[in-house]
Amino acid sequence: MKALVYHGPGAKAWEDVALPELATDSDAIVRVDTTTICGTDLHILKGDVPAMVDGRIIGHEAVGTVTQVGAAVRTTAVGDRVLVSCVSACGACRFCRDRRYGQCNDGGWILGNEIDGTQAEYVRVPFADNSTYPVPEGVSDEQLLMLADILPTGYEVGVLNGNVQPGDVVVVVGAGPIGLSAISGARLFSPSLIVAIDRLPGRLDAAKQFGADVLVNNAEQDPIAAVRDLTGGLGADVAIEAVGVPATFELAVELVRPAGRVANIGVHGRPVTLHLERLWSRDLTITTGLVDTSSTSTLLRLLAAGRVDAARFVTHRFGLDDIIRAYDTFSDAGQTGALKVVLSRV
Question: pLDDT at residue 19 above 90?
Answer without folding.
Answer: yes
